[in-house]
Amino acid sequence: MKKIMGIDYGDSRTGVAISDLLCSIVGSTFVIRSRNTEKALEDILQLVKQNDVGQIVVGLPKNMDGTEGPRAVLCREFAQKLESLTGLPVAMWDERRTTVEAHNILSQHNYHGKKRKETVDAVAASLILSGYLDYLAR
After folding, report:
1. Would you say residue 66 has pLDDT above 90?
2. What is the pLDDT of residue 106?
3. Which residues contact 137 (CB under 8 A, 6 or more apart)?
């Protein structure tokens, strides 16, 4: 069985979470620091190869009313590039409130300032992946 990768795509940082071998929980997380989309894609491709990933899920930032704005368009384009580059199936997952939830989780664990900024994207990617894994388990 191959692992599933969750991605929280951002302008300057992209959070990445990878499932365990059973695809039941989040196994590891990473933050890719790059404003260059091509560089971020290269780094993700390396993680895909190193971690035997078989599927990817990318967070889709919808508005609270369910509509999609400019950021969602960028994430869809990023997902299409990932699918072409990796040859893997790429799903989109509604990520509404994941960043807010990630900040709440980090606050509860006393992560503040720079420490929080460096971690929030990985936590958001974990939440995206966890939601998707829960969906698959149903």
Report:
1. no
2. 79
3. 24
Q: Is the pTM of this model over 0.70?
A: yes
Q: Do residues 138 and 30 touch, judged by C-beta distance below 8 A? A: no
| Dist. CA 56–CA 46, nearest whole Å | 13
CATH class, 3-137 region: alpha beta
Distances (CA, A) of 22 to 26, 75, 89, 94, 136: 10, 27, 18, 23, 12
101-115 pLDDT per residue, tens? 787 887 888 777 777
Query: Do the Cβ atoms of 44 and 7 come closer than 8 Å?
Result: yes
* Cα dihedral across residues 41, 26, 120, 102: positive or negative: positive
Give the residue from 27, 21, 28, 17 showing the smallest Cα distance to 98.
17
Type of residue numbered 79: A
Residue ranges of the domains in the chain? 3-137
